[in-house]
Amino acid sequence: xxxxxxxxxxxxxxxxxxxxxxxxxxxxxxxxxxxxxxxxxxxxxxxxxxxxxxxxxxxxxxxxxxxxxxxxxxxxxxxxxxxxxxxxxxxxxxxxxxxxxxxxxxxxxxxxxxxxxxxxxxxxxxxxxxxxxxxxxxxxxxxxxxxxxxxxxxxxxxxxxxxxxxxxxxxxxxxxxxxxxxxxxxxxxxxxxxxxxxxxxxxxxxxxxxxxxxxxxxxxxxxxxxxxxxxxxxxxxxxxxxxxxxxxxx
Length: 250
Hints:
The protein is α/β, with parallel strands linked by helices. The protein has helices at 44-52, 92-96, 109-114, 152-160, 199-207, 220-228, and strands spanning 28-31, 57-64, 69-71, 121-126, 145-149, 166-171, 189-193, 211-215, 233-236.
């Protein structure tokens, strides 16, 4: 989870809270980039490992290639594969020829969704506005789909597909202006850097009819602190350390 390409998102206005989602869990564990501490990020093996660790949701990053949609955090393939170049300028076949770590291939969005069984939620973080087109003709139970982005254009585009997916605004920090001038998109969640979360902010977010999800939390003690603040859940690279059992409040 980090800021993506393009202009920062405009603030948003909340529409409604949806607490029964995530199977009605009081606290939610979300695998970050699959499960980045245990498998190459944004790969099918990462998704499989996250499922083995019984996460409630799996977050991955989506970018548009020259002719499709793939899981990739960065704008280039340099950091996470054995290749070089911008994702947007490469074809699916070129991307699929790369090693994304331990022999894993760069997955298409549809391949990722195919391995996510109910009731697990799939979270697609759109890194650019053009990535919203991955929602067109999606063969997935969108009642289990969360679409997030740091950018207004990406969420606005996603909302136009009317898939029924939940939408989340990702931010680094909260301000009183965060929910201004975004009344055309129905938001359900705020995804926020855990280091900036306070009890007061949680109260303000929930008062706006939203739930707060905090990223990226790799300490069980910090996850428990956030749970005590009534944060709904956390993104983590390590669901072994940040598990439901480890996050139980005494």
